[in-house]
Amino acid sequence: MSQTATRSWSGVRSPTMKISLNGEDYEAEEGASVHGLLEALDLAGQRVAVLLDGGVVRKAHFQEVHLKPGCKIDVIHMVGGG
Prior knowledge:
Structural class: mainly beta
CATH topology: Ubiquitin-like (UB roll)
Helix content: under 10%
Strand order of the largest sheet: 2-1-5-3-4
Oligomer: single chain
CATH architecture: Roll
CATH class: Alpha Beta
Number of strands: 5
Number of helices: 1
Radius of gyration: 13 Å
């Protein structure tokens, strides 16, 4: 599931960095915030839990916590039902 960064509105590819997303290699936009990553994954505004290098990132901090090359992030999408 290796993925690459999306193109910006101008069509120019943004610089990327390699991270681990849910245990798989992923190329994220360089300097992306947790919120920016969730937007790229179409998960912004949805109920998710985020772990960054083993620590929980609170939703209130999604925009101010930035990813670094080589970081390990786990995104758990909450699904209702029974």
